[in-house]
Specification:
Blueprint (H helix, E strand, L loop, with lengths): L1 E2 L4 E5 L9 E4 L3 E5 L8 E6 L4 E5 L6 H8 L4 E2 L1 H11 L6 H21 L4 E5 L4 H13 L4 E6 L3 H11 L5 H19 L7 E7 L1 H6 L2 E4 L4
Parallel strand pairs: 4-10, 5-11, 6-8, 6-9, 7-8, 9-10
Antiparallel strand pairs: 1-2, 2-5, 3-4
Helix pairs in contact: 2-3
InterPro entries: P-loop_NTPase (IPR027417)
Organism: Streptomyces venezuelae (strain ATCC 10712 / CBS 650.69 / DSM 40230 / JCM 4526 / NBRC 13096 / PD 04745)
Protein name: Putative ATP or GTP binding protein
Amino acid sequence: MRIQHTGAYASSTGIPSQRARARTRGRGRLLRDLRERGGRGPRALTFAAGDLVVVSGLPGSGKSTLMKRAAGGAAIDSQDARERWDARMPRFLPYAVYRPLVRLAHYAGLRRALRSGAGVVVHDCGTQSWVRGWLAREARRRGRALHLVLLDVAPDTAREGQRARGRGVSAYAFARHRRAVGRLVAAAESGRLPHGCASATLLDREAADTLRKIGFRETT
């Protein structure tokens, strides 16, 4: 199925449900809801060359897992920066002490990737709206589009994901994430996509597990 307005393709092995059909809202901004398909969703999301993709959702919802499996070398994930710094720091040192260095390294890596002009898939925690603003400006500068891929999972499921990876966030931080992601989901469902986004794709855990590729068309 080709999404005409955004240059994105979705390769599906199942029959689209009524809820999963792409819907255009406003001036070419498009919502594709792939939730509640029982694992019969697309196996690939492919965007135009040079487009930018933001993957957002609750901590523990599976963003990093999805990006590592599906985005490959196009992924810019803050979790990767943290793991590199974790390996270099003494084990007794709390993460909060060197968190600013991790964030600096992550954003420096993102800046380098954006300067390359290639399509990029970026991890977003949902609370950093300025990052989406930065990416929207970059997409406009290069004459391409910004797309949002949003994981919509229950808070309990996200908490289980945090426990499984052995790394959680405080109750206060998790509440902030819930509010931010909740606003994103509600806005997408009503067709009010974040400023600068050309499209949004809503995934539940099963739809995310089905995806095997998030990528970009080759330039011709």
